[in-house]
Amino acid sequence: MPGVPALLKRHASLEDPVAELRAACATAIGRLGPRVRVLASGPSAERVGSQLVWQAGGLVVEDDETGLLVVGNGSAKRTEKAPGHFDPRAEAFDEGLRTSFAGIDPALADELWADTGMLGILPALTDAEVLYDDAPFGVQYWVAFWG
Amino acid sequence: MLKLGRHTFADDQPLMMAIVNRTPDSFFDKGATWAEDAAFARVAEVVGQGAEIVDIGGIKAAPGVEIGPAEEKARVVDFVARVRETWPDLVISVDTWRAEVGDAVCAAGADVLNDAWGGADPELVDVAAQWRAALICTHTGGVTPRTRPYRIEYDGPGGVVAAAIADTVAYAERALAAGVERDSLVIDPAHDFGKNTFHSLELTRRLDEMVATGWPVLVSLSNKDFVGETLGLEVGERLIGTLAATSVCALAGARIYRVHQVLETRQTVDMVWSIAGRRPPLRAIRGLQ
Hints:
heterodimer; A: alpha/beta; 5 strands; B: alpha/beta; globular
């Protein structure tokens, strides 16, 4: 799942701008069991992952986990209005991730504002049940479950 | 909880009370809704704009032709019944100081008695209690209904604000003793009523002191003379000044806004309510994607 700060409780709006994403995250996290280990590239992404685990009634643990939650996302430069503005390389970069998380170029990921630090450990999306795959604000999000 | 007749509202919800005049001579609309169908269309309009309350008045506040209770009832009672029948979820307030009129409009379906003249008729509280209606307790400094303020001074400690608090709270307590429910009492400093512009500006600046009494506060600022005198603007030009005063009152926590312009006031109050941390933004995603 992506570390989207809009998912945090303290950023709640009257109308949820990420309702579908939130629902997909809840579905995925619900399948991880009661003890979830959160793997994130930084404190902000970790906070988002952990809060969603707690909201689902789960415990965030360091070991003996029943499930693993990996937080990250694709580029943030998909459109003119994207947080990082438009970069013509962004779509191909995300397409590459969609095929495989192996061999990500960290320098290019940085340039495209992608949060891929933890994605390298994941199997390919083609082997997952993909619950969400969209870039609603010019940022590429996936929610996927590997059983 | 705020209980307005048959309707209840949460304590953190600001409410729009739209003014509907059944008068040929009110200062802002100058008789535009004098005809019953025009007044009815005005109600439809403000309901469409999201007003929770309409405040129906049959007599303009300023001095003018004497309107007896029979004529006042003729102007508002059947109209209240028609509005009640058409919009069962709408809160109907009637702007009157007369117990006799209050009784008739409650029988026709009114929820709130807005006594803009601060208890001039001592029996109005009994009518509110009997019909389980809400009552707006205003401050006028003891002036006779439909008179203009003339050289009124508030020389006691705390000035006009202390006087407004003392009088409105005393009125609310008198109503409580008469049997009006605690959740159905609202206080209103009544800008411009028994006050000069300096008084109304001070009431606005110190509205938090009224809110601190714990009674829900109504403000009636819309296009009034204190706005006009402050900015040097005629009646039709006072919206921006009204909204500035509205912002200050909203930040202090006023609960009900008696207004001519519903949409503009709602937008202003929503914005201030969110600044104050009492209302989440409608849809915040900037920087949070």
